[in-house]
Design a protein that fits this description.
With about 110 residues, the chain is an all-alpha fold. The protein is built from five helices and no strands. The protein has a domain at about 1-40.
Length: about 110
C-alpha cells in the first residue's frame, strides 16, 4: 500500500489503462455477439440471400429495388431447390453406402460362407 501511495501517478495510469482495456473488450464482445453469434432479425433467416448484378466493369454491382421486385416476381430458378437438395442428399447417401460396402465386409455374407 505504501508503494501505491508513493507512486500514485503510476498506479493511476495502470488503473486507467486496465479500465480502458476492459471497456474495449466488453465493447468488442458486444459487437461480435450482435453481428456474429445472434441470428439475423428476419422471419426466415435461413432463406436470406444476396442479390447482385455482374458486368465486365463491375463484378458485384448493386441491384435497384425495381429490379429486385422483378427478380422476385419472375423467379423460376429456385422453385425446385428443395427437391434438388433432397435428391442430392439421397444420391450422396447411395454413393456413400456403395463405397462403404465395397471397402467393408458384410457380416451376413461372412456368416453364409462359414
Amino acid at each position: 500500500m505504501r508503494t501505491i501511495l508513493k507512486h500514485w501517478k503510476l498506479s493511476a495510469i495502470a488503473a486507467f489503462s486496465l479500465t480502458i482495456t476492459m471497456a474495449l473488450g466488453i465493447v468488442a464482445f458486444a459487437i461480435s455477439d450482435t453481428l456474429l453469434l445472434r441470428p439475423p432479425l428476419a422471419r426466415n433467416p435461413s432463406e436470406l440471400v444476396s442479390i447482385f448484378t455482374s458486368t465486365p466493369q463491375e463484378r458485384f454491382g448493386r441491384v435497384s429495388y425495381p429490379d429486385y421486385e422483378y427478380y422476385r416476381d419472375n423467379n423460376r430458378v429456385f422453385t425446385l431447390a428443395p427437391v434438388a437438395v433432397a435428391m442430392l442428399a439421397i444420391a450422396s447417401l447411395i454413393a456413400f453406402l456403395a463405397a462403404w460396402r465395397a471397402t467393408h465386409l458384410d457380416p451376413m455374407e461372412v456368416l453364409r460362407h462359414n
